[in-house]
Every structure is written in structure tokens, then in C-alpha cells.
Amino acid sequence: MPRVFNFSAGPATLPEEVLAQAAEEMLDWHGSGQSVMEMSHRGKEFISIAAEAEADLRTLLDIPDGYHVLFLQGGATLQFELIPMNLMRGKRSVDYVHTGEWAKKAIAAARGLAPSVNLAASAEDRGFTYVPPQSTWRLSDDPAYVHYTANETIGGVEYHWIPEAGDVPLVSDMSSNILSKPLDVSKFGLIYAGAQKNIGPAGLTIVIIRPDLVGLGVPTPPLMMDYATHVKSESMHNTPPTYAIYIAGLVFKRLLATGGLAGAEERNIAKAAVLYDFLDASDFYANPVDVADRSRMNVPFTLPDPALDAEFLAGAKERGMVQLKGHRSVGGMRASIYNAMPIEGVRALVSYMAEFAASKG
Ligand code: PMP
After folding, report:
1. What is the pLDDT of residue 103?
2. ipTM attached to this prediction
3. Is the dihedral of CA 192, 197, 201, 202 positive or negative?
């Protein structure tokens, strides 16, 4: 069976070269006589794998000296809670920008943990189809941080700019667009991302945190919930997701070898243009998101009649294109076209979409 074009929102397609290398190294990693999965996380082999992955991530994102990089577990979902638990610093309120399903979950988690949650802005008025411009944001008085969701994986809405928060730490969920373009990490207090889109396998969560925000949480935090624990133990307080870290490391190396994040951005712009240009020219398919805020990673689209969805999906599958069904909360279709989706996959999708529309015309 040839490999399919996998448009899944996550876990998602990975670079074929990375999978091939992992296969080659599966039984004997670099002459160690063992698979990475079998290694002690405290042995020198795995320590070198983790250190190299971290160093490569630092190079890719040009992470400023002093910022901590943590390789954790629990998904972005655990971060929804750790952020308010760790970052209050005695302040009264936290600010969130509401752009859709993932922002909503982050906000719900904060409501249980922060004394007051202020919605600085919300795109609910137009069904979460845009990013509220910064000029409309109303920050609370002296919030502990401002949180935004850099890319709404379900709604297909992405920030193509970095908010200005002044002295207030800026916190961002970058689960579904990290490593898709260059990023000025120095503008952030904390960045977090689950790995299973642009980084590697599920099970690994990356947190990048400015040092002055570590260790100021609740007076006696549970150790696993305290960023200070993970900083102190260099992400080895307990057994880390070793194989996921290894694969992430291979993905970082591949990105470095293919033009870094500027190269990734160029490819992602080109790929997204193929799909959006087609959608804009079509009167059969539609995408609801404001043009300036469209995601380069997740492209939702609808057919004129939901009754056609099942036939569309079946035809796509026959042609080797899978996981195009939209999220249950919005319906329709969604094509996730992360870093590892080749432009050939997007071209194949567009050509099938044209064929399908013509067959109904
Ligand atoms: N935030 C965003 C933007 C996501 O896309 C996801 C997962 N799809 C999550 C958070 C939750 O991540 P996890 O399932 O790894 O906890």
C-alpha cells in the first residue's frame, strides 16, 4: 500500500524521511545494540538524544538565552491548567482572547483556577471566523498574563501577527502552528504546544518559558504541576516520553536541513495558496474565515449540501486522501496541511475537489 496523503489535524502526517530514518534505527540506534524505546532515560545515549533535540529546537526558534525549554507530558490540555496555577504571582486577574474551540477550553480551565478571568476580546459575534484586532482588546487592570490561541485548529483561524502586551507576560497556545514560520520568542512569557502536529508523535508537550515566570505559583504546588520542578530536573523529574522526544529531534534536524523556519514558512505559504486560491475561485466550496486570518495549517471548507459530504470523503479515500472530515463541532471538511504535508498532497486534493464539483455541476 503506498502512503496516503493524511490530512488529519493531529496526530498528523510526519516527514517520510524521518519515519524512514526511525525505521532504519529501530533495532540498533547508532551501534548501541538497542532501540531508543528501550533505553534508560538516564543513560548517556538518551541524554545525548534529548540534549541534541533541545539544542536543535533552540537553534530553529532562535530561543533567547535564559529561556527554559521543557519536554513534558499531559498535552496542551494540562498546560491550560498549569498556566494559571503557576503564573498568578499574587495578581487578581488573567486575560484571554476568545477565538474558538481551543481558546474556549483554555478559558474554561482558567476559570477554575484564577480569581478572575477577563475576556479581553472575543470573536463569538461572527461565529469565530476572525481574529479580533488588537485595537478592540480590553485588558484588565494589571493581569497576570494575556493568553491567546495562535492557531485555532478547528476553526482554521490563525494570528499572522504577535499581540503587543507591554509588560504583561504574553502566553500562547501554539499547538497547531509552532515551527510553521519564524517566531520572535523574546516577545513571550510562555509558549506551549502539543507535539502531534508539527513536532512529532503525541505524548510530548513542549513548553518554552521565560525564567522570571518559574517558581512563583501557589505556595506549595504539587511537584508535577510546578514548572520549577521540571526546570530543576531538566524535564527528567519522571520518565519523559523518550521515543516522542527522539522523533521530535529527527523532525528538528530535518527542518534545519531544509531552510529552517523561513524555509518552512515559504513552503506553507505556497501550499495554503494552492488550496485557498482554489476555494476562492469556486462557487461550489466555501471557507468562512476572514481572508487576513485564514490558517495556513488547517483549512475548513464546506460543500453546498452536507448530504454530499459522505460521497466526497469516500471518493477522497479511494484516491489515497484521508482524514478530511471536519471537526464534529463545525461539520463540513477540514484539510490540515502541516509542515510535513507535501505540496503534491495539496495539489492532489484540489484536483479531486475540482473533479468532484464538476461531477455535480
Ligand atoms: N490547543 C490546540 C490549538 C489544539 O489543536 C489541541 C489539540 N488538537 C489542543 C490544544 C489540545 O492538545 P492535547 O490533546 O495535546 O492536550
Report:
1. 98
2. 0.99
3. positive
